[in-house]
Amino acid sequence: MTMRPITAEGSFREAQHLHRFASRTAALPYRVLLALARYIRTRRDYAALGEMQDYLLADIGLTRLEISRVQKRHRG
User: Fold this and answer.
1) What is the pTM (predicted TM-score) of this model?
2) What is the DSSP string of 36-60?
3) I need a labelling partner for 61 at 20 to 30 A (CA). Which of 28, 36, 46, 48 fits?
4) Are 62 and 49 contacting, i.e. CB atoms less than 8 angstroms apart?
5) Residue 43 is part of which domain span?
């Protein structure tokens, strides 16, 4: 194994990589919570649209078929 010399630039780069890794790792739970909140909000919104009567959906320019298509597209 060869040892590389420690330089100020090398140490700085390693510190940057470590900082970037730590930042991304620390942000992971936050991103997971955001995704979960988005999922819950989307399901709640689809449920609310599904409970609306047809004439109310027509007032906002939607049909039940459009709601189902968008819902299926979001499910993957």
Assistant:
1) 0.59
2) HHHHHHHHHHHHHHHHS-HHHHHHT
3) 36
4) yes
5) 29-76
